[in-house]
Amino acid sequence: MQIRWLLITAFLFSILIMGIAQERSDTIVAIVNEEIITYGELVDKIREPLQEIEASSGSLREKEVQRQTIMQKVLQDMVDQKLMLQEAKRYNINISDKTIKEKVEEELSSKSSTPFSASEVDLEELMRSQLTLRELFQKKTTYSKEVRAVIDTFVPPMEVKYYYERNIAEFTKQNKIKTRFITLFYSRNGGREQTLAKADGIVKQLREGASFEEMARLHSNGPYAKEGGTWPRIERDGAEVWDFFGKGEALHREVEDIAFSLKQGEISEPIPLDSEPWCHIVKIEAIQYGGVVPFEEAQEMIRIKLRNEKVLAALMQMRARLRERAFIWPPNLFEGKK
Q: pLDDT-based confidence at 23, cuts 50/70/90?
């Protein structure tokens, strides 16, 4: 039997080398137990990345290395997916495409965060694997105690609470502010000293009751002077809007430190910048106070995050287990991969 498989492997390897050179879509590139994966199926999965590699400015050698790397990675994923589907079939588990689609839409519309991005994980494959794992867990009596522990993705309430307490900074929201600016360029106001003297006069008028909006329209050299100094603008959903912002999101550090020290409605002294040829006057239009998100609000997000981490870990271990007992060709496809 072993000699038979060695002969088959040698024969298929020669076909693989010839097939890839000729780019035949029916060439066998992998065998997973009694199923095959063809060159055409593989290329369908990586057509777009291959086109991007070809369009890149790398050398021929670099492009070839990139092609081989992505082909091996995707082929490994395809083999793992077949193994999972074969395991599901073995236990009469059939997850419909409709169910997968509904779960994917539910995940995409969820407000909760997940520990992966769409570029890292094929969401449909993850959902299929997750549902398969759940079904396998329900049939866990057929598995050993060790394997049952691997595929158990239940998150106990105490584990959720522990995560919250150990990562409280993750659930602490910072204060955010909404500001108006009067910006004075030195070059348009007679130089640095004269500009700062003008800024002092503007601040005096503001504190005596002058409208910040009107003073911005009259004096500011900033981009939104006509709008009453509504600055900075923050990108939200692809558009620039006047909105609340937090530390590190919009301002120079020296301006930020002063702005976040002010109370709502307060106006700063003129703020000259060391690195720029202008100064600012800032008004705090409104403050959005932060604080710690209560555990009751955070627990569902934490539960989903931990569940997804467990699903990924269980999936990796299940895949490793399935590979160990399967016939996979090429035999070194997963060499060095745990």
A: low
For the cut 80, the answer to whether the pLDDT of residue 82 exceeds it is yes
CB neighbour class for 130 (10 Å; exposed up to 12, middle 13-18, buried from 19): buried
Single-letter code of the amino acid located at 88: A
325: DSSP letter: H
In contact, 161 and 169? CB cutoff 8 Å: no
Look up the CATH architecture of domain 2-156+300-329.
Answer: Orthogonal Bundle (1.10)
Strand-pairing partners, residue 180, are 230, 283
Give the span between the Cα atoms of 233 and 317, in whole angstroms. 47
Residue ranges covered by each domain of the chain: 2-156+300-329, 175-289
* Residue 77 amino acid letter: D
Burial of 63 (0-12, 13-18, 19+ CB in 10 A): middle
Global confidence as pTM:
0.53
> What pLDDT is recorded for position 18?
44
d(CA 189, CA 277): 11
Close Cβ partners of 247 (under 8 Å, ≥ 6 residues apart): 174, 256, 260
Provide the terminal-to-terminal Cα distance of the chain, rounded to the nearest Å. Answer: 28
Q: Which amino acid type is present at position 206?
A: L
Type of residue at 53: I
CATH code for the part of the protein at 175-289: 3.10.50.40
CA angle at residue 324 from 321 to 326, to 5 degrees? Answer: 110
Taking only the tens place, the pLDDT of each residue in 169-201 is 999 989 999 999 999 999 999 999 999 999 999
The set of residues, in sequence order, having a beta carbon less than 8 Å from that of 184 and lying 6+ positions away, is 195, 198, 199, 219, 220, 221, 270, 278, 279, 280, 281
Backbone Cα Rg of the chain: 30
Cα distances from 30 to residues 69, 136, 213, 227, 329, in angstroms, run: 16, 26, 69, 64, 5
Determine the 3-state secondary structure of 136 from DSSP: helix
